[in-house]
Write a structure and sequence with these properties.
Blueprint lengths: L29 E7 L5 H9 L3 E8 L11 H12 L10 E6 L5 H10 L3 E3 L1 H12 L3 H27 L10 H39 L3 E7 L5 H9 L16 E5 L2 E8 L9 H15 L3 E7 L4 H21 L11 E5 L6 H13 L6 E2 L8 H13 L3 E5 L10 H11 L1 E7 L5 E6 L2 H10 L4 E3 L1
Parallel strand pairs: 1-2, 1-3, 3-4, 5-7, 5-8, 8-9, 9-10
Antiparallel strand pairs: 6-7, 11-13, 11-14, 12-13
This protein binds guanosine-5'-triphosphate (GTP) and magnesium ion.
Guanosine-5'-triphosphate binds next to helix 7.
Length: about 450
């Protein structure tokens, strides 16, 4: 049997606590995947592939999860023996990681790692490592670190608990006291990180208020990871963001202006995934909230997904949005219903699309938008829908030509109107009157009327 390592890094759950920042790249690592019963492993495989981890073998044991060791103890011991007796050329020769196909309890993580002396990741730990690898901004790094420390803490507490109960030898020779010190340090770091995160969110909230005061409207892109949020954001705002065929390419929030619509701000952010424990999710909620709290939420769904997936994803995202919007006091004003956008239309047949339309209509999205950012289709219609939702029908504005010498030039008024909203059409008539078709929020229209009273007429 492999000797459980005394190195805290390989002890499940304590990665990063003692040794500072855990490694961030896992590219090229080899893993064995442990599965119980008839679970569907596709998602976990995709997550591992995204990180460049190869699963060299999947060990499946029928039956239900063992509450202490996930697989049966005997089976785990066999695996430990196999690992122990590896020689060069053995298919497991380069395996230094064991993946467990479940959101494991702390007890299970400790149980497995005490039998197998390798690094053990359950699904949550895999996600956290992925987030760590992709976290590119201070905001993202802070929230990932918080989530990591929280999850480490549950494992450390379990270890402390087992030591107190005498089930386990001391930790690194230091016993319970050493472990309590590690936990105390961890708590201190968590407090500091939370403070930093709160500051960041307060600053962002202040930004949001300023934007709202300036009359800007926000559109948030919400959806599962890899749905195509960043691709759409990039198309409409022109702003460079990371677009990758990877899960969780985006972990933070980016705001950009919709092209030709200075008053419309777009929000790209982190995507959803199913079954994340609440404690982990909490660290990311504030980031997702930025998009959900927008004036208009666009719910993006990859139309090329299998039907069952689409059904599940629409259901979950819709629930998240309504829960969040119902709970939040700050943003509670007249909410527009979310708009459903089917993405990657270029990848599917008309029949597939028709079936997907039927599915989303069942969920009450009667008029979904269909787009392809790769083929540039449906994007004009989407922009039109955004404007209609935010501003209603466009107004016709007439600017009278200046009568007296001290009257402002029409150009000044035109410039102000461009500031206030989105000008679709503009024409100077023969008598010098300027005629414009404009999308603008009611407050902006009211402001224009006040400022240019006598000179403009808005219908
Ligand atoms: N065929 C096709 N692929 C697309 C389309 N839009 C996006 N993709 C691809 O889908 C993948 C994911 O796109 P992203 O825009 O990064 O998705 P995201 O929703 O931002 O993903 P996360 O940031 O990971 O949550 C990329 O490989 C894109 O090139 C499309 O219209 N057609
Ligand atoms: Mg993205």
């Amino acid at each position: 049997m492999a000797q459980p390592s005394g190195d805290p890094f390989t002890l499940a759950g304590s990665g990063g606590v003692v040794l500072g920042e855990a490694r961030t790249s896992h590219e090229g690592r080899n893993a064995v995947l442990l599965v119980r019963g008839q679970a569907d492993t596709r998602e976990l495989e995709a997550l591992a592939a995204t990180m460049g981890i190869s699963i060299v073998e999947t060990v499946v044991q029928p039956g239900r999860e063992d509450p202490r060791t996930f697989l049966g103890k005997g089976r785990l011991l066999d695996i430990a023996d196999e690992l122990q007796s590896r020689v060069p050329g053995h298919p497991w020769a380069k395996v230094d990681l064991v993946l467990v196909h479940t959101n494991a309890t702390a007890r299970q993580l400790v149980g497995i790692s005490s039998v197998i002396g390798l690094e053990i990741w359950d699904r949550v730990r895999l996600l956290l490592s992925l987030f760590t690898a992709h976290a590119a901004s201070v905001e993202a790094r802070t929230q990932v670190r918080i989530a990591r420390l929280q999850s480490d803490r549950t494992v450390l507490r379990e270890l402390a608990n087992q030591q107190t109960m005498g089930e386990r030898a001391g930790y690194g020779g230091g016993g319970v006291t050493a472990l309590q010190n590690v936990i105390a340090n961890l708590n201190r770091e968590l407090t500091n990180l939370r403070k930093r995160q709160r500051k960041h969110h307060n600053a962002q909230r202040e930004h949001r208020r300023q934007r709202a005061r300036s009359g800007a409207m926000t559109v948030g892109f919400v959806g599962y990871t890899n749905a195509g949020k960043s691709s759409l954001f990039h198309r409409l705002s022109g702003k460079q963001v990371l677009i990758e065929d990877k899960l969780f390419s985006t972990l933070e929030t980016t705001v950009g202006r919709m092209e030709k619509s200075p008053r419309i701000l777009l929000v790209d952010t982190i995507g959803f995934i199913d079954n994340i424990p609440n404690a982990t999710l909490a660290a990311f909620k504030a980031t997702i909230a930025e998009a959900i709290d927008a004036d208009l939420t666009m719910l993006l769904v990859d139309a090329s997904d299998p039907f069952l997936e689409i059904r599940r994803k629409v259901k979950t995202t819709r629930r998240e949005i309504t829960e969040r919007q119902g709970l939040d006091g700050e943003g509670l004003r007249d909410r527009l219903p979310p708009c459903l956008v089917l993405t990657k239309a270029d990848k599917i047949s008309p029949d597939h699309l028709a079936a997907v339309m039927d599915i989303v209509q069942e969920f009450g999205f009667l008029d979904p938008l269909v787009i392809s950012t790769h083929e540039n289709t449906g994007l004009d219609a989407l922009q039109l829908r955004v404007r209609e939702h935010l501003f209603g029908a466009p107004s016709t504005v007439l600017i009278k030509a200046p009568q007296a010498t001290d009257d402002d030039a029409s150009e000044r008024i035109v410039a102000d109107i461009h500031e206030a909203g989105m000008v679709e059409d503009q024409e100077v008539l023969s008598d010098g009157t300027v005629h414009l078709v404009v999308w603008a929020a009611e407050e902006q229209q009211a402001r224009l009327k006040r400022r240019w009273a006598g000179r403009i007429d808005i219908k």
